[in-house]
Amino acid sequence: MEVSMDETITLIRQESILLQRLLERDNLIQAINHAVKAISFLRSDDYKLNEYYEIYLLIQDRCFKPLSDYLIKGHTSNKFHLNDVYDTVQYVGNVLPRLYLLVVVGTCYASIDDAPTSEILKDLVEMCRGVQSSIRGMFLRQYLSDNILPFFIDSKYSGRVDQLTKCQLTLENFKEMNKLWIRLQYQGFLKERIQHVEDRIDIKIMVGSQLINIHRIIGDSNLQFYKEKVVPVVLQQIIQCNDVLSQNYLFDVFFQVFPVGYHLATLKSVLEATLHLHHEVSIHEIINLLINKVSSDNVDKIDSLEFVEVFSDYLYNLNQKDPQLSLLQFIPLLESVINLSVNEEKVIALDQFFELLSTKLKNKHTEYINEENETLAKFLILNRIPNVQNYKKFIVKVILESKWYRTLFTDQISGIQAFSVNVILQELLSCSKSEIPIKNKEELQVILSFFSPTIENYDSRHPILQENLVKLVHWILNSMKLKTVNDNIELISILKNWYSNINVDFIHISHLAIITKYWELVKKCKMIQNKYCKNESVKKQYGDSTRQVFKLISRAIQDLVYLNNEQIMTTSHNLCLETATLADSLSLGDISYDFFVQAIEMHEENKISSSQKYTAIVVLIQTLQRTNSLFVENKYNDLIFRCTTMASRLLKKKEQARAVYLCSHLWWTTKTVGMKIVQGEIVDGNTSSNDMAKSMRDRKRVLECLQRSLRVADSILDNITSYQLMIEILEICLFFINGTDGWDSPVPATYIDGLIKLINNNLKSLKLEESTNLKFTGESDEEPLEKEEFVATQDGRYTSFDASIPIDPNKMTRVPINHFTRINDYIKRLQSVDARFKSIKL
């Protein structure tokens, strides 16, 4: 018949009261009978674990404690001998009450002076085997453990039990409790399995407490005894139990209870034991527990090389035992060991681990899953090592010194490489230029070989990889810190040739940064020449170096041209012009001329797309206007003549007209604005009077450009576009009059008169006389177009606006009459103050 928990507690309290009353009357036998009745409630399987524990504590407090006190007092007062009582309780009928009473009486008997303490304790531990039910057996052994522990650690019992017996008894209790604990999970029906697992977790401390007791017995200074008598038994029990929950928990307690010195002294044995665990046990979590324990105590105790050697052998054996061990388990294990044994100065210790992982990956016959790829990519970054304070220096040192790290990295797929390279380069680019220098070409070649697979697998459709490669070039160039210019030139040449030989598609990314670095070297050479201007040998040396660098720039630009890509061609054209400007600022007219010619040849050979030609010519014109060193040997004349010829060959008439009238500025230079170098930096600067003497003043060519531009503008069928171009040409003419700085204007007033007359005739052809009372919108201050009766159509004709026609008047072309009106007003104002404008007829 089932009894409720409340009824059980009531009955136990009744039995305990009767027990205490009988003890007061010295009726021990009857008191023991009532104790048996109370203990019998612990035989039931009807209680939940927490209820069973409450009953256990109640009996221990209300029955066992009064009984123990009475037995000690009765023996000391010679009412009875505990040996007789010990024999008497062995006749109790039920096993569980008998064993509980034996523990109570036996521990009281063992505490007296003349008792055979060691034999009694051995007898109690052995007799507890009689209960094999998990819950009942574990609580019985826990009670036994609590009662015999004072005989092992209390100084008043010193000498009664030798240390070997203490450990043997505790270890025996530990083994039996572990077996009972594991058995709990598999008792009863399958549907009760989940509850049993939860119960196991709740009472696991009972098993762990036995290891705590062992540590309390042997202390922290008995290493030899620990190695010979404790570790073998504990590890053997952990292995033989072959239970996932038990092995995980016991290793956790094992590492936490015993000091670090004990673990380091028995490291090989502990690691060997982990090779024989259940296949579902996460070995890397077990090792992490050990690593965390060691690192939290005192890392200085570790002999790093020996530590690495032991773990290297262990990981090798682990891989041999289970070659298909998942990277999700193997790599965290590696990281745990590396985190403890490696710092910035001990990079060489990593090589063994990289070699091991590389070998494992080559022997792996199955495909990686996504999680493994992600884990491997994060491991290769090596940015989670706590002892590394400066990650940037550390990772560069690893790349330079660890052969197996480079091998491991280059063997990975492009996705893993791209991820790892991105993170590494992101860190490296954040450091200062002098923080991680590349000191010689040997280091550069090692770094280049490390990143070779990344370049070989380059795909322009892969934006992340492309971004990585750009970062790589910039980091390498920024890290070059060699003393001489020639050494820098050599390293840049190695870098450029390496990229070109591995993957031609990457040239357009690498060469831009390389050319920029060349420019920096040119400026450096000039700065050194200025610093040692009185030393002819130094000036000659760096002058030769400057010319050599310009040759390398020309070759690099030519490499880009060979790619025959429209966008890259425009970039190449602009690079030529920038380099020409740089050479001109150094007064190297011949070199500047060569780069201008190289840019012009791109136009003449139709390498620049037609859509980009106009913009490229405008940039060329602007660059030529800033030159100072080309006014010798007709170099400037040759360049501007070819530029004007290119402008006149543009296909679109509107672009041709504008390009040609812009070329007129090249034939009539005003105050020349160029560039110069001051303390190694290029700044804007104005030319001297000597430079002005070399400037270009050719009236005939200016007029030819303006007349050619006007003819082209007049031939355009779109009247409004033609009208607009004519106004722009008029502005150019006024510029030449107003900006001559004392020189006679290359544009005579008669030419301007004719141009104004032609513009007025065009207005007449559009029927835009003021007498028509028609308004044209050209500025925001004009009345809205919707209020007008007429608008101008695309062909320039004047037509009435019908509101019923579904046409948006705002989308129709507006005649820029106000533009011309403002120019006329401007001329009228200047005529009153400047005699040069008075001859112009409006």
Automatic annotation (TrEMBL):
Q: Does the keyword Protein transport apply?
A: yes
Fetch the InterPro entries from UniProt: Vps35, Vps35_C
Q: Which superkingdom is the protein from?
A: Eukaryota
Record keywords: Membrane, Protein transport, Transport
The UniProt entry lists membrane topology as: Peripheral membrane protein
Q: Where in the cell is it found?
A: Membrane
Would you indicate the residue range of the signal peptide?
A: none
| GO BP term, pick one | intracellular protein transport
Q: Mind naming one GO cellular-component term on file for this protein? A: cytosol
Q: Which family does the record assign?
A: Belongs to the VPS35 family.
**What is this protein's function?**
Plays a role in vesicular protein sorting.
Q: What is this protein called?
A: Vacuolar protein sorting-associated protein 35
